[in-house]
Amino acid sequence: MIPEAIIISGYDPIRREVARLSLQRLVTDGRIHPARIEEVVAKTKKQLEEHIVEIGERTVIDLNIQGLHPELVRYVGRMRFRSSYGQNLLMHSREVANLCATMAAELGLNPKLAKRAGLLHDIGKVPDEESELSHALLGMKLCEKYGEHAAICNAVGAHHDEIEMKFVISPIIQACDSISGARPGARREVMESYMKRIQELEQLAGAYNSVEKAYAIQAGRELRVIVESEKVNDKESEELSFEIANKIQNEMTYPGQIKVTVIREKRTVNVAK
């Protein structure tokens, strides 16, 4: 029987790593030695926490990011043990940080500020405790808590369009996040399950009578729904977007978030002869 002290709970990658290392150290001669359980788990937690801080410190040094609060440095280190579609979160964040710095410099903006925001944009994915907030909003709250610049807080919170973009660097972080995640080879997923989810999204939206066409884009992270303007007014299109989003949330299983965009367009065509 696995000791309660090292049972893996939920999707916490840090706890999984503690459990894995603890079991390796506890098992000798094919047996678990109960007397050493608490000692080994405590020692493993401490060593892993030190390793996390070391990873975070090394990352900010490599990126030449200065003055980051120690807790944010620790969150950066935690990203090393989280992945999305097979893409390591820390490598993704480092890539986004460098892309942001390059793009900001080309646009005559502050590359250091953009690089800092790029590194921190996904820290909401590695919280110490579970939260009902999305990772973008949670990341924004953490940045605010630890004294980051308002532009960085806004960029982190807005990179999935959940709040309004109020600073020039915010769309840069969003664009670079998309570039890093969508580039060929960045992420992997079983093709069959990916295609099935895409089809289910489009079929779910297409079941509404007023929907003309539905397209799943951005690797299934956004659903664009085109409605017939004669059947749906502006208010009804807003309600339809909300209803489809709720239906996806209640009926489907998917990683991350899915943005639902309803497009209502009136076209008038005449032919000159």
Structural class based on helices, strands and sheet pairing: mainly alpha
**Order of strands in the sheet with most strands:** 5-6-7
Radius of gyration using CA atoms only:
23 Å
| Global morphology | globular
Uncertain spans: 1-11
Distance between the termini: 84 Å
* Count of DSSP strands: 7
Residue-averaged pLDDT, rounded? 84
Helix content: 40-55%
Helix and strand pattern: HEEHHEEHHHHHHEEHE
| SS summary, helix count | 10
Q: Major beta sheet, specifics? A: 3 strands, mixed
Strand content: 5-15%
Task: Provide a compact summary of the structure.
The chain has 273 residues and is mainly α. 53% of the residues lie in helices and 11% in strands. It starts with 12 loop residues before the first helix and ends in an 8-residue tail after the last strand.
Describe the model.
The protein is mostly helical and 273 residues long. 53% of the residues lie in helices and 11% in strands. The protein is built from ten helices and seven strands. The strands form three sheets. A three-stranded mixed β-sheet has the order 5-6-7, covered by helices on one side. A two-stranded antiparallel sheet has the order 1-2. A hairpin with a 2-residue loop joins strand 1 and strand 2. Helix 6 runs antiparallel to helix 7 (150-158) and helix 7 (150-158) crosses helix 8. The model is unreliable at 1-11 (pLDDT under 50).
Topology:
Blueprint: H1 13-26, E1 27-28, E2 31-32, H2 37-62, H3 70-78, E3 83-84, E4 87-88, H4 89-106, H5 111-120, H6 135-145, H7 150-158, H8 169-182, H9 191-206, E5 211-217, E6 222-228, H10 234-251, E7 259-265
Parallel strand pairs: 6-7
Antiparallel strand pairs: 1-2, 3-4, 5-6
